[in-house]
What does this fold into?
Amino acid sequence: MGKELTKGNEAIVKAAVLAGCRAFYGYPITPASEIAEAAAKYLPAAGGTFVQAESEVAAINMLYGGAAAGVRAMTASSGPGISLMQEGISYIAGAELPCVIADIMRGGPGLGNIAPEQGDYNQVVKGGGHGNYRTLVVAPYSVQEMADLTTLAFDLADRYRNPVMVLADGFIGQMMEPVEFAPRAVLPEAPGWSVRGTAETRANLVSSIHLEPDMLERHVRKLEAKYREAERNEVRWENWRTEDAEIVLVGYGIMGRVLKSVVEMARAAGIRAGLLRPITLYPFPAAQVRELARRARAFAVVELSTGQLVDDVRLALEGRAPVEFFSRVGGNVPSAEEVLEFLERTFSARHAREEVLAHV
Amino acid sequence: MSSYAISHERAHAFYDHFERKGELPHQTHYCPGCGHGIVHKLLASAIDGLGVRDRTVLVSPVGCSVFAYYYFDTGNVQAAHGRAPAVATGIKRSRPDSIVVAYQGDGDLAAIGTAEIIHAANRGESMTVIFVNNGIYGMTGGQMAPTTPLGKQSTTSPGGREKWNDGYPVHVCELLNALDAPVYLERVSLGDNKQIMQAAKAIRRALEYQVKGLGFSLVEVLSPCPTIWKLTPVEAQKFVRDEMGALFVPGCVRDRGKEAEARPARAAAPALADVPRLIGLTSGEEAVPAAERDLDLRIKIAGFGGQGVLMLGEVLAEAGLEAGYEVSWLPSYGPEMRSGTSNCHVRIGRHPVDSPLVSRPNVLLALNEPSLRKFLPAVEPGGVAIYNGREVPEGCERDDVRLAAIPVTAIADGIGAGKVANIVMLGALLELCEVVDEERVRGALRRLIHNDRYYELDLAALERGREEGRKLAAEAYGWGV
Ligand SMILES: Cc1ncc(C[n+]2csc(CCOP(=O)(O)OP(=O)(O)O)c2C)c(N)n1
Ligand code: SF4
It folds into this structure.
């Protein structure tokens, strides 16, 4: 197919439908509403279901029902709505149901504002609900990735029988870029464990309760093993001009875009910068961060939150290299110039050049 | 009556052995005299009677009946506290042939799940809700329920339920009766055998309506909980019949089984090959042309809301894409939008777009004066700025920027539609700076503007803009090509 100029939020829905999503349950919230609006148009057109739920609490539980019935299902929201969904997400993970949840982040806490922020990192990547579970998290930085990673999210959700979250910020949701969509010739069958109101599936049970401590422990260990497997197999990231990088920038979503500009500008100013962009936030590219520490002198994390991603970078490095941190919040997105200025302040260009010489 | 006689044989819809239960697999986990056991039997025999065991999906709640799936040999889904109607919605909408039963207690349905039950009922979801009202929280050990009678003690109403502090008992059937969609609402009781017979009928009817494809049914069952009320099973039954029954009077609140329409069947799913078209993916395999020029346009467009700022950006991005460039379009949204101003960032270039945010534009299209004042200082030296006005306002001089003033709104008014001022500006831009060929812009307009009249107007606006641009380029600027 050719490329179509598409809004990020719309790309999610189109990719979802092409990936076989046939149920969408949602509740409007800026800057994610276009997802529900597009779903209201396209899901029924493709023979699926769209329901505007009475709340995000209801939406996530409708999703639980849809996923239990063996259909590819999704919802989308933003910070406050995701907070409301957390109990349901925990149930979905506990019951091992596959589904996709998009979070188009806005400013918080509380009502905050509707401008782009990345303050949901912890509640999404670390799990915001109760109990020992993880969600797999993909973080698009372009409209093409909104489509591609939504497709991937459905496949990962099925493979791991686990909720997968698409974590994007308001900018990626609102912007338009050319997208090439990938229709499928066949769609996956309804899974054998699902409860579909048929003779073959009558014996099936979807539940997250395990009353007996040893049974619950076994269940939790099983989930844990699944997450370890995802950590081995599903890490995705992009290294950009890191081969000779002295300073490794780390950022995701819209910041990944801005940081690419920063890398070019920094290099022109004599700072050998590179970018590591996590594409999956869980599993986190920890080994990849460590690998770059073999050469890099320092890391600089730039995010639209007051220090959430940076914790994962620090954990990954285990003290191998210093980590500098720059953030803007409240809906402000730093310009490339602003980040460059921070870098220059922090690592003077001259110092960087000396270090380069020292390496030769 | 006889067809509703309760058989003492185990219903087919029950398992023979409760293996999921583990210990003591021949008996249920309910206390002696508990109403849940009776309601289970009534439901199981209704499922049997209608022959829908294979199609049934039971959604169990959080409450003493959380383990209903130990017993029902049907599909089973266990839901979060209060959310059974939402979960049931998710199942039923995707599997319209299934028979979905949401089984809920009073805390589950009438407290934490109030929103879910009201809205499932209001959407007329084709499901059957069995609402077991025992007036108390059983599972958590005897806290006050939304249905606890006034004056009754519970662990969280130690002085008795008190209206000023705790409000009044909630009458669920009457509450739902205020809605248009429900088909069947009945309150029954397990107070004596006769009442149990009536309960059996009601549960069967509620299920039958679903089998017939009708909408939402709910049966509220007043049910004994001897353990928490600290009564013998016999006393508990009497309490249900007399005290609960006086407060929540049994009876049919609504039965529209005769006149209700069946929920329309969902249209058959389209062929998979048709799906891309159905979701608006129209582009075929046409080859994208190679980018003609080595462009790197970083365009900022700004003005008042309603001036077509975002649309102008979209036309540019679409035209750029058609001409084989990499493009991005990023709207400002959020706080700025509220103040009535609007701006967007467009990038068009030969190389993949790194940041879609334009902080140092090389093209500024300012549709009003505040925008010019705000963004002109950021324009890169050598860049182009077009301002919507007869002359550049005072204090906006820049020697290193090619600054043009064109009253695009006035010009647009002149051709009869102020709304196309943005396209006049686009026409001027095509003359004043190297962007994309006009043919591409026309192509983009054709794709974005579905109304023929507006499309013609836009073409006229584009032409007028070009004339103005050509004049300027020829007169003072000399940098047209
Ligand atoms: C979110 C949440 N809050 C509270 C609870 C604790 N809880 C479990 S069951 C229950 C009340 C059950 O009462 P009811 O619905 O009347 O059912 P019964 O046990 O009386 O049959 C409560 C409060 C929970 N499981 N989840
Ligand atoms: S506590 Fe009450 S509701 Fe729960 S099983 Fe015992 S009698 Fe039944």
Notes: Chain A touches chain B through 87 residues (CB under 8 Å). The mean pLDDT of chain A is 96. The domain at 238-359 of chain A is CATH 3.40.50.920 (Rossmann fold). Residues 17 and 130 of chain A are 31 Å apart (CA to CA).
